[in-house]
């Protein structure tokens, strides 16, 4: 491995297990948001807005508005779960609970701690996606078995957004400053990343900008998998998310090393 | 005697600030060794290097004969650490805290539960097994952190100010447990600024200040050598006391309203001082490690 990719043993599983143990303490509360959120959105947009919008043209095809946004809701959930887990929640563990300090006095290394955290963020994205899929499937908006690919997709997207979040955690002086990446990175993607309307509706420069952002690709891929469209057109999006993770993940580890090793 | 820690010329710098400057010491197997010093002396920085938390700026450090820079993981597997801040998992129960922590050492789950229960009994925490860590009082937190540090059956226990902020009952409980562990052959390295703690627990200790070692030795020998056996405290002394002491070449320290006179063995001088200078009261007492500490590190406030 090159110097950019730090040596990591399988012990990162221990950190992941720790977070799972804590999650299981409160799972009854944790799974309510991904259950209710899609219901609210589907009601608001599906019943309310789609009466105004009707069908829309997406990649040359006519589809109902609900069918357009339902997969995007899954992509947004995957993004939010991973990003917020590896920003606010990881920061609380690092800064307030000093969990990482305790781990660093054991055979665990910083690399394993951060890897375990990011894999956990991706895992939360998968858990939330699975719950959402159950709800959305009740409306017949996911085609199976292709739709099951949404789960590994949520993991890949979770890695990308979790690693990006961890970079923010490594450099932020205080928890309040997470507002900055949320407003400059997450919210614009939420609104303009091909989620609630096709990016073709945007001016050309904005379309090009949107294509640089990970959520645009994650939403497009989610739409493809939910609608059973598995072909070569999904490859560039997958390659983009993999490349994004391959840069953000070692960057997060490096920045965290600098922050934690005193 | 085989040394468990061999630290030579340790140096730790944070940018311009030199926290530890040319510190060397050795800890033998089965020994309890103390690092004393005022706040900011470099105690924590020193032991953080020993347990592989901080890389050395310069110097060499061997633990169990292994170079810590190259064998951090192997060394960490064999030591137990109680850091200064409470870093328990607040969302987990007392027992879960131990079971989760045992995983970091790859201790199998079945064995971890057994060891955890055994240690909870040892630390008198078994009745709180299912309490959430966030609801524990300061004394219980400290005991749980100690239990956690013993999970991997360490050969060396490192404690950073183990009793700071505890009430006297909890403090004595911690001391008793540490004495039991030491009697069982465990090597212990601790930092403290409680002199009573150091005199009671430590076989040997060093006092450091501003990153450097001032003195090192056995507690009772340090007291005898640097202070003597007895100390006379004179409250509100007559003005000419200090002149008298200088004239007689007696060691003393003056704080305005109080003068501390170090009385040498066999000297009758204290009678004269009591007769001539004690207007508001004099106290003759045994010299303690605290006298050594204050003498070596000065009386001015830190930080």
H/E series of chain B, N to C?
A: EEEHEEHEHHHEHEHEEHEHEEHEH
Helix content of chain B: 25-40%
Number of domain units of chain A: 1
State the low-pLDDT regions of chain B, or none. none
Biggest interface? A-B, 22 and 29 residues
* Radius of gyration of chain A using CA atoms only: 19 Å
How many strands, what sense, and barrel or not for the largest sheet of chain B?
6 strands, mixed
How would you portray this structure in words?
The complex is a heterodimer of chains A (262) and B (303). By secondary structure, chain A is mainly α. The mean pLDDT of chain A is 92. In chain A, strand 1 and strand 2 (61-64) form a beta hairpin. The longest helix of chain A has 32 residues, at 65-96. Chain A contains eleven helices and two strands. Chain B has 303 residues and is of the alpha/beta class. Chain B has a domain at 228-286. In chain B, the strands form three sheets. Chain B has a six-stranded mixed sheet with strand order 6-7-8-3-9-10, sandwiched between helices. A four-stranded antiparallel sheet of chain B has the order 2-1-4-5, with helices on one face. In chain B, helix 3 crosses helix 4 and helix 8 packs across helix 11 (289-297). The chains are: A mainly alpha (262), B alpha/beta (303). The A-B interface holds A 11, 14, 17-18, 21-22, 25-26, 97-99, 101-109, 261-262 and B 14, 48, 51-55, 72-73, 76-77, 81, 83, 85-92, 96, 100-101, 103-106, 152.
């Amino acid at each position: 491995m090159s110097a950019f990719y730090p040596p990591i043993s399988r012990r990162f599983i221990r950190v992941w297990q720790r977070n799972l143990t804590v999650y299981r303490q409160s799972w009854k509360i944790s799974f309510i948001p991904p259950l209710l959120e899609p219901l609210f959105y589907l009601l608001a947009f599906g019943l309310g807005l789609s009466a105004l919008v009707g069908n829309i043209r997406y990649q040359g095809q006519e589809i109902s508005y609900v069918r357009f946004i339902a997969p995007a809701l899954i992509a947004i959930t995957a993004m939010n779960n991973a990003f917020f887990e590896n920003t606010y929640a990881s920061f609380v563990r690092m800064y307030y609970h000093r969990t990482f300090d305790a781990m660093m006095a054991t055979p665990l290394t910083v690399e394993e701690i951060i890897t375990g955290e990011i894999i956990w963020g991706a895992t939360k994205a998968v858990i939330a996606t699975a719950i959402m899929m159950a709800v959305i499937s009740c409306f017949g908006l996911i085609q199976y078995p292709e739709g099951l690919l949404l789960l590994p997709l949520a993991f890949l997207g979770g890695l990308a957004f979790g690693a990006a979040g961890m970079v923010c955690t490594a450099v932020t002086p205080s928890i309040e400053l997470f507002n900055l990446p949320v407003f400059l990175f997450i919210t614009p993607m939420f609104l303009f990343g091909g989620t609630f309307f096709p990016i073709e509706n945007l001016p050309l420069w904005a379309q090009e900008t949107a294509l640089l952002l990970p959520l645009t690709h994650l939403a497009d891929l989610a739409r493809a998998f939910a609608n059973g469209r598995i072909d070569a057109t999904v490859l560039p999006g997958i390659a983009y998310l993999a490349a994004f993770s391959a840069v953000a993940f070692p960057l997060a580890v490096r920045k965290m090393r600098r922050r934690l090793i005193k | 005697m085989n040394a468990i820690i061999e630290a030579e010329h340790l140096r730790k710098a944070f940018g311009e600030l030199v926290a530890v400057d040319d510190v060397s010491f050795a800890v033998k197997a089965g020994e309890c060794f103390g690092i004393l010093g005022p706040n900011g002396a470099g105690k924590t920085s020193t032991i953080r290097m020993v347990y592989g938390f901080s890389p050395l700026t310069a110097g060499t450090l061997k633990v169990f004969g292994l170079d810590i820079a190259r064998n951090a993981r192997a060394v960490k597997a064999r030591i137990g650490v109680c850091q200064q801040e409470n870093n328990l998992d607040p969302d987990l129960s007392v027992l879960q805290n131990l079971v989760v922590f045992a995983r970091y050492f790859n201790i199998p789950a079945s064995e971890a539960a057994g060891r955890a229960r055994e240690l909870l009994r040892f630390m008198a925490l078994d009745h709180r097994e299912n309490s959430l860590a966030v609801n524990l009082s300061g004394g219980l937190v400290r005991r749980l952190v100690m239990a956690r540090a013993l999970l991997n059956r360490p050969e060396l226990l490192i404690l950073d100010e183990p009793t700071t902020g505890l009430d006297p009952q909890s403090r004595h409980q911690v001391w008793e447990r540490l004495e039991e562990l030491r009697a069982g052959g465990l090597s212990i390295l601790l930092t403290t600024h409680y002199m009573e703690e150091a005199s009671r627990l430590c076989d040997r200790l060093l006092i450091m200040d501003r990153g450097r070692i001032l003195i090192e030795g056995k507690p009772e020998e340090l007291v005898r050598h640097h202070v003597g056996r007895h100390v006379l405290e004179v409250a509100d002394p007559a003005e000419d006391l200090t002149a008298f002491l200088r004239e007689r070449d007696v060691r003393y320290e003056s704080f305005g309203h109080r003068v501390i006179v170090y009385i040498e063995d066999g000297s009758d001088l204290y009678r004269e001082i009591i007769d001539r200078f004690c207007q508001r009261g004099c106290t003759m007492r045994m010299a303690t490690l605290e006298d050594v500490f204050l003498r070596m590190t000065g009386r001015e406030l830190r930080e």
